[in-house]
Amino acid sequence: MTQSFAQTLQCWFRLSRPPFHSVGALPFILGTLLAYKFNAVFNWEVFALGLSGVVLIMLATYHSGEYFDYKGDVISSRLHNNQFAGGTRTLQAGKIAPAIALWTSIIAVIAALCIGILLQFGYKTGPCTLLLGILGTLPGFFYSTEPVRLVKRGIGELFIGFCYGWLPVASSYYIQTGTIAPIINLLWLPIGLSIFNVILLNEFPDYEADVATDKKNLLYRIGKPKGLLVYIIVAVLTSLSMFAAPAWGVPAKVTYFYLPFFLVSLYIIVQLCRKAHEDARKLEILCGLNIVVNLGITLTFILVYI
Fold this sequence. Notes:
Blueprint: H1 5-16, H2 22-39, H3 44-68, H4 70-79, H5 98-122, H6 129-141, H7 156-163, H8 166-177, H9 184-187, H10 189-202, H11 207-212, H12 218-243, H13 245-248, H14 254-273, H15 280-305
Helix pairs in contact: 2-3, 2-8, 2-15, 3-5, 3-6, 3-8, 5-6, 6-7, 6-8, 7-10, 10-12, 10-15, 12-14, 14-15
C-alpha cells in the first residue's frame, strides 16, 4: 500500500532522530554563548550556518548507521524495543529503502562541506574552519560506514566523546571569534565523558546482536562486567570534573546547577550495581536518564553563563 505524504514525512522524521540532535546542538550553542560572554561577539548568520552544518553531520552519521547496521538492527528488533538502541527500525519495516538512507548520508556530508567552505571563505571565520568541520565529518560518517567503520574498532566511543564534546564547543566559539578560549579545553571534559557513557550504556541492549554480527565495539571487546566497571569509572570522573569546574574559572554556581543531574547519575550507578541492566524495561529507562545527564551537563554550563 502506498504511503501518504504525512506517513512518509513521519518515517523520515523518525529515521533522522531529531531529538538526538540535541546532544550536538546544545554544545554548539554553549560555544557560541561563551564567544559572546568572553568577547561580545555574535553573528547570527554564522551561528545559523554553523548549526546547520552540525545537524547535517549528525544526519550523515545517523543515516549511514541505519544503513550499515541493518543486519544487527534486524536482530535487535527481535530482542528488545529499547528506543535508545537498535536503530529506528524504519528500514527494517520497509518504510524507506536502505540505499536511500546511504545516499542521503552522502548528500548531507556534501552539504556540510559546502557550508564549511562558505563560512571559511565567504564569512572569513578563520583558516581552521574547514579543518574543524572535517574533524567532525569524517569520524561521524565513518563511525558506521565500511570499510573504516570506527564502531567495530573499539575506539568509536572515544571519537564520539570528542566529536560531541570538545569539537562543537570549540568550533562554534572559533567561527565567531577566530580563536579558541583555553577554558574550553577543560570545560568540554564532562560533556565528552558523559556522551561516551551514553554510547556505552546504549550498547548493552544490542550486545547479543553485536556479537552475532561481529560488531566489535567497546562492550563487545570487554564484555558486560567490565563494561559496567568502565561506565561507573567514567561517571565518577564526569562528576569530579564538574565539581572541579570552578577551579578552571567557571562560576562557582555551576555546582548548584549540576546537583540535580549528579543525583540522576548517582541513581543510574546504584541501579546498575543492582543489576537493573538485566531487565529490558529498566535498562531503557536508565538509557534515557543517561542522556538527561549529558544534556543536563551542557545545560548547566549554559545556565551558568547566561
